[in-house]
Structures are given as structure tokens and as C-alpha cells.
Amino acid sequence: MTQYKEIKAEILAIGDELLYGQIMDTNSHWISQELDKIGVRVVRRTTVGDNRDAMLSAFESAEKIADIILITGGLGPTNDDLTKPLLAEYFNCELALVPEALEAVRTFFEKRGRELTDTNKLQAHLPTKCIYIPNELGTAPGMWFQENGKIWMSMPGVPHEMKRLMSDHVIPRIKENFTLPHIYHKVIKTVGIGESWLSDLIQNWEKNLPKHIKLAYLPSLGQVKLRLTAFGDDMDQITNDVENEITKVKPLIDKYIFGYNQETLEEAIGRLLRTNGKKVAFAESCSGGYITHLVTTVPGSSDYFQGSMVPYHNHFKNKLLHVDQNTLKEHGAVSEATVIQMAENIKTMFEADFGLASSGIAGPGGGWKEKPVGTVWIACAMNGKTITKKLQLTQDRMLNIQLTGVAVLNMLRLCIEGKTE
Amino acid sequence: MTQYKEIKAEILAIGDELLYGQIMDTNSHWISQELDKIGVRVVRRTTVGDNRDAMLSAFESAEKIADIILITGGLGPTNDDLTKPLLAEYFNCELALVPEALEAVRTFFEKRGRELTDTNKLQAHLPTKCIYIPNELGTAPGMWFQENGKIWMSMPGVPHEMKRLMSDHVIPRIKENFTLPHIYHKVIKTVGIGESWLSDLIQNWEKNLPKHIKLAYLPSLGQVKLRLTAFGDDMDQITNDVENEITKVKPLIDKYIFGYNQETLEEAIGRLLRTNGKKVAFAESCSGGYITHLVTTVPGSSDYFQGSMVPYHNHFKNKLLHVDQNTLKEHGAVSEATVIQMAENIKTMFEADFGLASSGIAGPGGGWKEKPVGTVWIACAMNGKTITKKLQLTQDRMLNIQLTGVAVLNMLRLCIEGKTE
Questions:
Q1: Which residues of chain B have a CB within 8 Å of the CB of A214?
Q2: Which pLDDT score is estimated for B2?
Q3: For the MoaB/Mog domain, which residue ranges apply (chains A, B) (predicted)?
Q4: Residue A137 pLDDT class (50, 70, 90 cuts)
Q5: From the candidates A7, A14, A32, which should be mutated to test the interface with B, based on the most B CB atoms within 10 A?
């Protein structure tokens, strides 16, 4: 990619409502994704309020670091919307009526059987240096500027209007104006190992990565994503380069890889169960239905998910899940003996191939010396054998529920794949 | 409040994954809301990648415009994380081992029965000019700097770790260090009514709100929050003003109010069940354990939550939940007759005062002309009677699961409060 000049973009979001946290800025996130797809590198995103000085200095600063500046917001007809006058000031030109734009606004209101107000007519007054870009879904037009080899585009903050302008006008025009590098991303999704242990396992491979491939660790609850990104002039070449590196790293961490790119752990579980023609059921105590919820968010999960029970008290673990009274008395609900029976019984009741169980102390209350908050037993019963695992988690209830969920789904994955020790 | 110097903040988010659009930056949005609540004005939000020059110039620029600079991300133990070394460079100091921090990391791993790696030990090396802020939920410590009257705080990008650090340390320390305007917020939480209907009901009250009280509608899934915000010099005065307005508006929307401020719907349910000494159980089909999950996220829910069953197929609805074969044959699983039996049987099995049931077509598949995707029946069985409701929801599976959850919990709330028609 060295022969390419990297094309850099900054995304500017304008609006007090963003800075006050009243509206979440999903626009900048979406634009980042769209630019990433075509190999434009977003180098910064900035959000400023409806404020003259803040906006003008954001314009200046953006022009210094970016080839493309995409602006959303501040285009309403009201006085607190400053983007248009300030762009005119910044590019040192006047606002003038654009008949085509006025016609568009008029039509927009006619279609809705509404009268055109003077305030709305003002929306057809645009900086003389900009190219008018029609906004079919709203009244604030897009404005395209080209100055000193830099491209500026101002768009309304309303997401569906902005998205239409991006797809129909901005992306195609960017492709016309710049020679863009090819870019290839692949994400390896791992579970059951922390970021630092993962990096210890693959450090030699990481050291030897070719210069045009970048590695990023993206940790989330109980999972770590490894993102490989390659830039180059030949798409097939960089795709092969990345896939080759994945072939090299896979054996080092094979046991922890559950999928690639967008696939979630629960989707991977679904894929494995479906392809193996197996069914699953869950007996959840401390995880309180969370695992079942994850599994059933996947479309088509009814093909392999049989059902679940959440017996939250010993009485019901015995009465409805048929866990032996004495086992509960002698070992307690949070014990290996109990989760084994929970897993085996739920498997039988729901006629499943795999029965999984969780029992633990989610907290914040209920812990004691021998079994502190965060103590969790999980089990997976399958034909022939039942495996168990003890987890020592955190003091945080929600975190304990989520981490138990990840651990149980990972245990199921390893059982289906026959990767258990 | 004019007598106060306005305290300005910039929020810096660090990470290529944000600029690539692979992770949505929800942190900056959340931090904006928290700062807004205490009267700190967020003047800019900036996102830059894991890049030395970009980060250093973001630091410089932030120091020029803000009194408080809050930084998230770039704190992992791996090589692509630069925040810590660059802060040391920016503040012109060394990284040195902080024994307290090392102890915290060690304990964090011991609790999980894991060995401390060298990579992890590095996380205890901090810039000598920073105050070490312990992160109970992760291994990357918070770092607090105070230089030339400006405050800097660096936090991990993992949302739950950042939120804990903000609530326990950053917000209190900001209040200590600055004189902030008096602000009183109160949020009225409603469920079961749309934003526009709500605004119709309260429009006259809203028109007559005193100038120093601002009203914001904050809609979320199936719920609408009404946030009243008063600014002033006298805290008692503005508190009374807001409470007076709430006394006025309450009768207009009483049936829809489930709580105030931070209380969630599932927490309100828990409060109502506990104070009334009642127990609850759920039979979930289309909601797939989601309702049970919500209820069990609340600490102490074992006091009133008995248990749940998720029988995902007719066979198990009959075999394990004892729904009549003929009912299932004649009316189908998604029918009033079926949810009535599901609710009444789960109530009996789990010896509860309230038995709730959901059965519907979450989608995307499984719908047909008479029962399109989004058709959901819900029921609540209590002593003496069972009430039902039919919902026509969306085409989106996840949305249907969530909206069913809100509808069932709201039905339970109205039953406990005796507010059902």
C-alpha cells in the first residue's frame, strides 16, 4: 500500500444535544463503518456544540489532518443551527438562493400538504462555493465543498437522511475523487482466555506479522476478539496474506476460537448444535435465565433449544428438577454434586443431548467463608458423561451472571466439539 | 447560577476500533450524561486512534479548552495500548511500579485462581505524577492527574469498569475540586404509554412550568422517562420547586408511573412484591428467559422470585407445564387459552401468588396470515382470576422479546397494585 497516499477523514458531529448526552451520536459510528469499507481511514471524530468558536476551530483543525471532512448536524432552520452560515464564513463566501433547492423544499412540503414557511425558504439559501446535494428525505440540503484538494460534506443530523446522502452521493463521489487502497479485515473470536494470556500465546507470531497487517485486541466480557487488518493494492493478495496469518495462528489458540467476524458465541453454539443434529436444555440457578435468553435471541433456535428451568430455591430444585434432598442437605445448592444432578435431570426432562446447569452465589449477599460471593459451579451432562467446573468470579452480581453465561456456553461448545480435557 | 464559573470538560475516547466503527463509543455518551447531571459543561468530545501524534495533540488541544479531561480506552496490557506511556510523556514523568496497584492486580487474579503474568504486572507501573485509582472490576487502574488547575482522569474503555470508576471516584472528586452550580434532577419513570400520548396528557402542565425548570422526554423500549431539571442558587428552593411540579403532574399519569430516578421496572416489581409479601413465577415461551433474567438481575430477588420454566415446544408445554393437549391442538401455542393455562400452572407448580406467561411469534420466521410475526399473548394468574392481553409487536426478533418483557412486567405491576381495568 506504500504506493498509495492514505486518504484520511475526520467526522464532525454538531449539536449541544449530543454533548449533553440527550441524543446518542450513532451517525459518527455508522459513517466510520462506511468509510472503513472503502478504505478511507478515519483519523479522528469530534463532537462540538452549536457554538461559533468551537465549530470554526473544529473546521480549521480538521482541515489540517484530513483529506475528507464529513459534518453532520446543525442544519435545522432555527437560529441555533450554525453549520451553514459558519461554512460560508469559513470558505469566505455569501449565502445565495439556490432555485433547485427551493423547488425541492417546496415539493417536500406540498407532498405533505403543508405550507412553505419563510423559515423553511431560508433552507434553500446555500454558500455560493458549495455544490447543492438534494436531500430527498428532509428539508436540509447536503452541501459539498472542494477546496485545496480537500473535500467537505455537510449533512443533516437526522440519521436516515444522512445515510441516504452518504450512500447515494458521498461514497460514490469520494470514490471518484480519490484512489483508495484495498483494505481487508478479519476478526478471530475467542472465548475462555484473557487478553494477556492470549497475547503470551501468540507473541512470536505477532512479532513476525508483515508490516502491512495490523493486529488489534478487542476484549469484552469473557471474550477477546483479534482483528487483523491488511492494506494493499491487490485485494486477492491482502486477503491471502491475512488468511495465511490466520492459518499460522489458529493452531496456537485453536481451543479458544469459536468463530470469525460477526458471529456471536450463541450463534456459534447454534451452528454447532444444528450441524451435529443435537438438542440442548438448561437448568439455571445463579444465571437466572440469562443463558436461555442468549440462546433464544438467535433466529431459528427452536430447532435445537428444547427448554429450560430456573428453580431458584432448594425446594424447587428438589420438587421440580428432582435433585436429591440429601445431596442438597449435605453439599448445598452451590456444589458439584448438585449441578451434576441438575444437568443430568434437565437433560432427561427436556429429552436433550446436552443438559447444562449453573448454581452459584451471584451476590452481593449470600456468601460466606467457604463459599464467597462469586463462587459458581457449572456442569454439562451428555451421553455417557457429565463434566463440571468451579468458577471464582467477582463481587458484582450482573458481572457474575454474564460471566457464568459465557462459561456455560463455552463449556457447551467444547463438549459439542469434543475439545474437553 | 450566573455567579458560578462554568466548569468545562472534554471527553477523549481512544481506540482504532472506535474509528474503524467496530465498537460503538457508548462511553462518551454516558459520561456526557453524568457530567450534565452535576452541572459540568461538556464542550467537546474527541475520538482518536491508538496513535502517538494523534493522542498527544488531543491532550494538548483538550488542555486548552477544558478544566476537566476524561479519557477512556487504550489501557490494555498489550502493545497497541498507548494511553499510559503517552500520559507519562505528556506530564513529563516516569512509569514506576505502584505496589498497591500490583497487589490489586495480584488479588484480582488470585480470586480467579489464575497466575499473574509479566504482561499483567506491567499494568501496575504508573506515571509517577498520577494518583492511583483502584479499578475493582478489572486490571487496568484509573489514573488521576492534577496539573495547573486542570484535572485529568484516565479510565479503561470497558464500560462497566469505567462506570464504576466514574461513580465511585471521578464524580465525587470533581465535586470536591470545583464549585458547581446547584442542579436538581428528578426523573419520573413511566411504562405502558407512548411519548406523544404522554405529552398530550401533560401538555397544559408542561406549558406552565416555571422558567428555571427544564423538562426532557427520554424514551426507551416501551418506557418514557420524564426528566425535570432545575438550576438555581438555593438547593432547597429548586428541590421544592421540582417536587411541587411532580405533585401536580402525578395525578395526570399516575397509572403509568412505576418509579423515580434510577429505579428500573424490575426493581420496582421487586419492591412491590416484597412490601406486599408476594411471590412470582414465570412461564416464558417467546420471551425465552428474558423476563426471568431481568427479574433475577435485582439483588435479593430470591426473596420473591420462585422460579421459571421455558418450554420452547408444545410437547414440553404439555409434558412439563401440563398445558392441555387439546388446547394446544385447537388453539395453538400462541393463543389466549394456552397462556391462561401456562400462567395458572406455573403459579401452582412454583407455589406463587402471581404466575405470568408469554407465548408468541418472535420471528423472523414462523408467522402466517392469522398470526403474523409479532403476535404475542401474555397472561397473569393470581388468586381468583387470570387476566390476558394480546400484543401486536414488530418484525424484529430482539425487539419483540424485549417489548414482551416490558409488557409482562407492567402487567405484573398493575396486578400487584390492583390497577388492572
A1: 16
A2: 44
A3: 10-177
A4: confident
A5: A32
> What is the pLDDT averaged over residues A362-369?
91
Q: What's the pLDDT band for B419 if we cut at 50, 70, 90?
A: confident
Interstrand relation of B150-155 and B182-191 (parallel, antiparallel or unpaired): unpaired
B330-335 contacts, C-beta under 8 A, 24 or more apart: B332/B371, B333/B285, B333/B359, B334/B286, B334/B359, B334/B360, B334/B361, B334/B371, B334/B375, B334/B376, B334/B377, B335/B359, B335/B377
- Whether residue A326 contacts residue A311, with contact meaning beta carbons closer than 8 Å, is answered with no
Domains of chain B: 7-177 (3.40.980.10), 182-260 (3.30.70.2860), 274-417 (3.90.950.20)
pLDDT at residue B22 in the model: 84
CA-based radius of gyration for chain A: 28
Beta bridge partners of B220: B223
Task: Kindly list the residues from chain B whose CB atom is less than 8 angstroms away from the CB atom of residue A362.
Answer: 296
Listed residue (A257, A250, A230, A252) closest to A242, CA to CA: A230
Q: What percent of chain A has pLDDT over 70?
A: 98
The answer to whether the CB atoms of B20 and A290 lie below 8 A apart is no
How many Å apart are CA A60 and CA A46, to the nearest integer?
Answer: 12
Fill in the DSSP letter of residue A306: E
Task: Tell me the pTM.
Answer: 0.82
Q: Is the ipTM of this complex over 0.85?
A: no
Give the one of A21, A196, A363 whose C-beta lies nearest to B33's C-beta.
A21
Mean pLDDT across chain A: 94
Cα(A281)–Cα(A272) distance, rounded to whole angstroms?
A: 15
Q: Name the grid cell of A365.
A: 449477599
Q: What residues in A contact B77, CB-CB < 8 Å?
A: 195-196, 199
In this complex, the residue of A36, A302, A312 whose CB is nearest that of residue B305 is A312
